[in-house]
Amino acid sequence: EEKKQDETSTPTDTTAAAEEDWNVTDNPPIIQYNPMTLGNTEVFLSLFNKGKNQIIDGEIEVIDKDRSRTITKVKGNEYLMLPDPKSKTGQIVLVCDIFGYKKVTQEINYPLPLGDTIKSYVDLMGTTLVVNFNMERYSKGEMGTLYNVIFHNDAAIMLPDSKKELNGLLAFMQESNSRRIRLHGHTNGNYNGKLITVGPDKNFFSMEGAVTGVGSSKDLSFKRAEVIKEYLIANGIAADRIEIKAWGGKKPLYDKMSVNAKKNVRVEVEVLAD
């Protein structure tokens, strides 16, 4: 004889009990502001190298177009709110200038960004505005500047903060064994005086153990380009892939007495072969 089912319980009791424990909530509604401005719209700045199919790490300079001044710098590949330029037109210029890649400049309208979605580099993803920066590597004949490689005064010794951009140059050289470059060293003005160089321990980022001598501005510009070459060699790059050209103060970007004179002190990288 079949055993009778307990009349006090049913097969659905367990399910019903479980349902009582569920906490079901609806997704929050998507809020679309009207009008849509960058003051109420999240932005995603996408830095991407299509050729290599990879995301690029870097910063973007946010510029007030009307006043030609930098408002701030923001990190790429993050969701953020862009600052209000509080200008007549509301135009913002976004500049992505990462060493090893061609500079990319995009414009966007702060008060009316929805109209910018017709531009090839702007997409609307839900309520997020996506600004795309397709980053392309330097090619043969092109030149970039190591603006963030900074030297101690009168020295061919770099400050520790220079390492990030140096490693960007190193990665650029590691991508292709056939890639060759020429390093152009420049100073601010012409002089003869103290010249400090790295010692035998090859401490590229400290004055400890440095050697003090004398030299001209051309000598200093050569030594500064040379220490970058030595850093690359120390990290596995063949010496015959790197040439040096020393200019001293012969090719200034600004007058040596101007407020921008420090920018004359630089090392440029010319791509000789891909």
Write structural notes for this entry.
With 274 residues, this protein is α+β, with helices and mostly antiparallel strands. It has 3 helices and 15 strands. The strands form 4 sheets. Strands 1, 2, 5, 8 and 9 form a 5-stranded mixed β-sheet that branches. The N terminus is likely disordered.
Contiguous runs where pLDDT drops below 50 for at least 5 residues: 1-9
- Strand and helix order: HEEEEEEEEEEHEEEHEE
Q: What Rg, in angstroms, do the CA atoms define?
A: 28 Å
Number of helices: 3
Main beta-sheet strand count, sense and barrel state: 5 strands, mixed
Taking the alpha carbons of the first and last residues, their distance comes to: 88 Å
**Strand elements, count:** 15
Strand content: 25-35%
Q: Please give the share of residues in helix.
A: 10-25%
- Average pLDDT level: 90
Structural class: alpha+beta
Which overall shape is indicated by the principal axes computed on the Cα atoms? elongated
Task: Give me some keywords for this one.
four-stranded antiparallel β-sheet, 274 residues, alpha+beta
List strands and helices in order, with pairings.
Elements (H helix, E strand, L loop, with lengths): L12 H9 L20 E8 L4 E2 L3 E6 L4 E7 L3 E2 L10 E6 L7 E6 L12 E4 L2 E7 L8 E3 L17 H12 L5 E7 L5 E6 L13 E6 H18 L7 E5 L19 E8 L1
Parallel strand pairs: 1-9, 11-14
Antiparallel strand pairs: 1-2, 1-5, 3-4, 3-6, 6-7, 8-9, 10-15, 11-15, 12-13
